[in-house]
Amino acid sequence: MSNLLTLLILLPVVAGLVCYFVRSSAVRNLTVVATGAILAAASLGLLGQGSFEPLAVGSFLGIGSDFLITVMDFALLGVIFFYGVKHRNLLIQGFTLAQVVLLAWFEIVMVEHVDVPALAGDQLSLIMVLVISIVGSLICIFAIPYMKEHEEHLHLKKSRQPRFFFFLLLFLGAMNGLVLANNILWLYFFFEVTTLCSFMLIGHDATEIATRNAVRALWMNSLGGLAFVIGMMLVYMQANTLNIAAILGGASQGALMVTGVGFLCLAGFTKAAQVPFQSWLLGAMVAPTPVSALLHSSTMVKAGVYVILRFAPVFAGTLLSDGVAICGAFTFLACAALGVGQSNGKKILAYSTVANLGLIICCAGINTPLAISAAMLLILFHAISKSLLFLCVGTIEQAIGSRDIEDMRGLYARHPRTALITVIGILTMMLPPFGVLLGKWMAIEASAGNIWVVIMLATGSALMVVYLARWAGSLMASREANAAPERQPLLTRLPLMLLCGGAVVLSLFSPWIYNTMVAPMFNAPPFIIRFGSFEASTGAFVVGPLFIVFALGLIYAVKAASGFRKVRIAPPYLAGSNAGEAGTYIGPMNVPVPFSTGNLYLGELFAEGKLTPIFNALAVALIVLMLGGAL
Length: 631
Description:
Blueprint: H1 2-21, H2 25-49, E1 52-55, H3 65-86, H4 90-110, E2 119-121, H5 123-154, H6 161-180, H7 184-202, H8 208-239, H9 244-249, H10 255-271, H11 279-283, H12 289-297, H13 300-310, H14 319-340, H15 345-366, H16 369-400, H17 411-414, H18 416-430, H19 435-446, H20 451-475, H21 490-508, H22 510-522, E3 528-530, E4 533-536, E5 539-541, H23 543-561, E6 584-586, E7 592-594, H24 608-630
């Protein structure tokens, strides 16, 4: 067990240092691939070991591990403060100094330093480790050929890949440490490491817009760090322990405890980019695609929902719980609506990510066994499908020079493999019998007692189908003969194929995953398997027959897009009098004007510029009410 934990937390750090100091691209590539393989194997080995009780971590070179974490905490805050000064951002400086002062008071005056088991693992932690180590590793492997082409496009004289892969791998180690931490001070340390890593990766290209968006991400997440420190102090004042397992096992729901957890939820909101903090994650789209995929699927934003889910038992049955559910459901609806008006593929995925994170947080607020189980399934399946889609967008962008879905129209005729994988990824996000929809179905079932939450979840789900189906249809909108076979580097093709296969195959086995990994932890109602359908006390999910229908539909769609029927393509009817040459009509001044087709984006109804300030103001009001309910 100790060897597995060491590999999962420390190996990515060591591998990142190798990538940074050994400037050979061959060594770097081998290090990334080997680290990914070892992390995946270690996460599966840890899953095989099962849940484990809190474990103590020994000293290093005679120095206690808790003392080392404390020293690194202050050093990390010093680095963040340095970047606040460098970029002349008073918010970063103020939030960081406040953390330093409060943390020093907490460590020196308040805390009775006794040995606390540093690491622990339950089913939530093990699922998170699987997502981080397997999905995150595939993203890092995909980044090897992607970054080579990315830097060739930028015409860099000196490669920045050593620093890039250092922070990419450090991210994985920090996230594994975060989800396995049992000492709340350790949890805070790893929480802040992810803040620094995201800042460095978002600003990697060092353009003006990249730097501006990285700074915005840093100050928003520094606010989250300050909320974390305040929450940690209040929780300690009530529980008198740093042991998370003891905090969760205690019966206390006093005012200090619930208020403290409310601030921890606020920290989770900022990290998970919930409205009104979504702008930092939308701005992160300027980063190279592997960064976007990592932030959205398996690391940064999942840290936010993990913190809220981890402390959910503490606020069960309180007004704070209701507030968290409503805030999450509102984010789900708001970002689903904002996504309808977008044509940028990355931005569509960004809004979809924030929306689905809101759904997971809503489940944490509903706080029943079925709701928490739904949240865990959503974490798993959303990470696989969303990472796949981000990597597909990056591949398409490098192939056609655009991430606009209008430019992807008919992509199947030019890049059939990538287009088909993208379509499958989109379908796994919105259709049965895939795991994401299973999680949504369970979430809506769990929210049946709150009519406002049900309405927001149902409406948001419908809006999400609008822009995902529109995108998938555009990709297949062609009857042209396929071009030459699509060529991709092995390290591009392999992650895409594995993630695509994982999204489909794991969905097929989703009821077994639920019954063996999720339901026992929360005493949730199990699925009963009958004739290809999976039934529970809350309803049935017909997986087997739906997979057959899906396969037949996909085969027909591929054949239709490949031109298997001989059809005559007729131009649009132009009433004869103003028809010009092929593909044109006679416009003003008798000039031929080419006609074109495009999707409807309802820009006036779903205008981002108009809706965002309204949604932000409403979200701030909801958060204030949520925290007020915790007092």
